[in-house]
Amino acid sequence: MSTSQEPRIVAPDGGAVRELLRVTAPVDLGAIDPRSTPGLPVAEMDGGRRKTWAREQVELVGEELGRQQEMLFAMAQAGSERPAHRVLLVLQAMDCGGKDGTIKRVAGAMNPLGLHIRSFGPPTPQELRHDFLWRIRRALPPPGYVGMFNRSHYEDVLVARVASLVPEGTWRARYDEINSFERELTGSGVTLVKVMLHISYAEQGERLLERLTDPRKHWKYNPSDVDARARWDDYQAAYAEALSRCATDAAPWFVVPADRKWYRDWAVAHLLRETFDTLDLGYPAADFDVARERERLRTGGAGADGAPEMNGR
Ligand code: AMP
Ligand code: MG
Asked: Which residues pair with 255 in a beta bridge?
């Protein structure tokens, strides 16, 4: 029966995407098809309709994310006894993997006031004078905020490894350093959602060509992207090892098949929604007498003696 119903969020098929997309060691990226759509409940629809459907769902999930984000923010403002929660989405991908697009679509549906978005490029001379986690610590979201990292400390075991920016002993030691750093974060109320957007070699080729073809996209292109592409297998191996070594119970890694942009956005939106659901969020109770305030508002703020009260004093 097809009646015009209120659009509503349709749950992923086969359980939470948090379970479907989560990876455990040893990670075999070759076994994950970048064009696949795990959990998509309308797999039987034709391509065009699936895409439209997924885009509508992202809007709906985005509204829900906005509500959850507001509760997170409100709880931190109210300063509850628990350490205030923060959520940090870490996005990693090869060039053209869709990190920017994901942030645009998913964060775009949320309240900018509560977002803390940071991108990481090559370290500056100042950053190079410190250990690799220094700039990461400075970029963490404050309590109550949702952070999004466009690249992260993982670059220090990815590009740093493949491009031999540091000796092998240095990057090898970083897996443990990352794990203890992330343990520290989760222990202080940060919920980490680490996502690798997994694109294929062919799809990257098409997207790079698009960037070269459209002059409005030249700013996104960097000749070094082709150098990194030439090291594709080395990067995939570096990703696989980083995910294998640093996928922990407290800070899991998810691999999102990302050749289809609409699936990518749908999956990341649901990953965030499901993560918020684990946080037991709610609106904090008022720390003032609501009935009394209502009465004061009605009477123009007059106290018992008829004189206006100044800020309750
Ligand atoms: P984009 O994300 O396209 O703006 O490019 C950022 C560039 O910064 C990429 O080429 C990354 O490999 C590079 N990058 C990010 N973090 C690091 C790092 N820790 N060390 C070296 N290069 C980095
Ligand atoms: Mg780039």
From this structure: 196
pLDDT, tens digit, for every residue of 73-83? 999 988 765 66
Antiparallel, parallel or unpaired: β 190-198 and 253-257: parallel
Choose which residue among 91, 96, 100, 120 to substitute to test ligand 1 binding: the one with the highest number of ligand atoms within 8 A of its C-beta.
Answer: 120
Q: What atom of ligand 1 comes closest to residue 159's alpha carbon?
A: 12
- Label residue 168 by pLDDT band (50, 70, 90): very high
Q: Quote the ligand 2 centre to 217 CA distance (angstroms).
A: 11
Backbone phi, then psi, for 284, in 5-degree steps? -70, 150
Contact 69, 277 (CB under 8 A): no
Report which protein residue has its CA nearest ligand 1's atom 21: 122
pLDDT band at 22 (very low <50, low <70, confident <90, very high): very high
The Å distance, Cα 262 to ligand 1 centre, comes to: 25
Q: What pLDDT, in 10s, does the model give residues 216-233?
A: 999 999 999 999 999 999
Return the residue whose CA atom lies nearest to atom 1 of ligand 1: 121
The Cβ of residue 200 has, within 10 Å, a number of other Cβ atoms equal to 16
Over residues 302-312, the mean pLDDT reads 54
